[in-house]
Amino acid sequence: MPPIKPLPIADLSMYLMHGGPRVEELFGGVLSGEFVRGGHLYNILARSEETANLVGRSIDPSIRSMQGAARTADTTGKMGVIGHTDRSQSENILHRYQKSVAILQNASAHSAEQVTSARAHVEKHREIISRVHSGEIHLTGIKPTIAGGNTDSYQLRCYTFN
Amino acid sequence: MLEETLTVINYGATHLIKVPNNLSSRNDASGLGLDNFNNEHQFWGQHQPIASVQTPRVGMGEKGSTNLMDQRAALIDEMINDANRNLSPEEKAAYRASQAEFGNQITPAQRAFIIDEFESIASKNLSGAKGIANIAQDEQGFLLSDETTGRYKKVSGGIDDTIERLKTATTPEEMIQIIDSMTREKPGAGARSK
User: Which of A9, A45, A65 sits opposite B112 (nearest CB)?
Assistant: First the structure.
């Protein structure tokens, strides 16, 4: 029987990516405590081309996943995942809201858990939903910057292990 | 339609933060039929980003930029590096021992990232609402695409089995073989030609 390989696996569960103000606009260098919803696990934002690169970029740039990324990027690499995470948050909230309202309006047909969840969603997002209904685009509490800013080059660093 | 999906609203920046598990909670979308949207986390308190990238200058109605994805990929680099740097002494020792004994070439954070990505994508529910299912299908296409035929493949084996095997792979090539071995072409799937 081959020996069991003790190959350690790190815990990435604490890492989140979150949209927010530019670094120079962070008050005190931190994301505000009021900035509390819409944090995504890193891997949600790691979709599309990054996903195609995930193995290639993470362990070896020569493998075929990189080729796969290059091949598919022109057709689906710019798919709506960005829209899902960025652009369509308002729609997402409204969609949930509508689902929730439908559940609450017909509560007897749903489980207690579903009703509780629906009620919690409506309560939690009441203000946001109101803003969305008024036409405001909601992006995790930060008014989107339509234009301006800069695209500072970002230097990729090699993976390190110290 | 394509132009629309390319639209990106500029956040300003994307930040990588590290939120202790006891300060975050996963949104509960149970019963709402939105499993694929069950990905939001609430978190409390102020958090100093580990790293940040400015999002590109792309606005509503403008054509999107892959720079956004490149920059977010950079945050993944930062995440993996940070996780590796912050391994416990015991974990570091275990990694070094696995290098010496088994020729392990994959750092603990890299392994975690790949396994998590595979699990997340491969287990996506493709039977949800049309738009959501399409997104999931595209995501899987990236991971499981077949470079020879241009078709994407579907996981045919057990995801759990694949993950267990990924846990014990020691080289990048071995990881690729494992993922490849667990996929097959989806019958009748549309070709994703170049």
Answer: A9
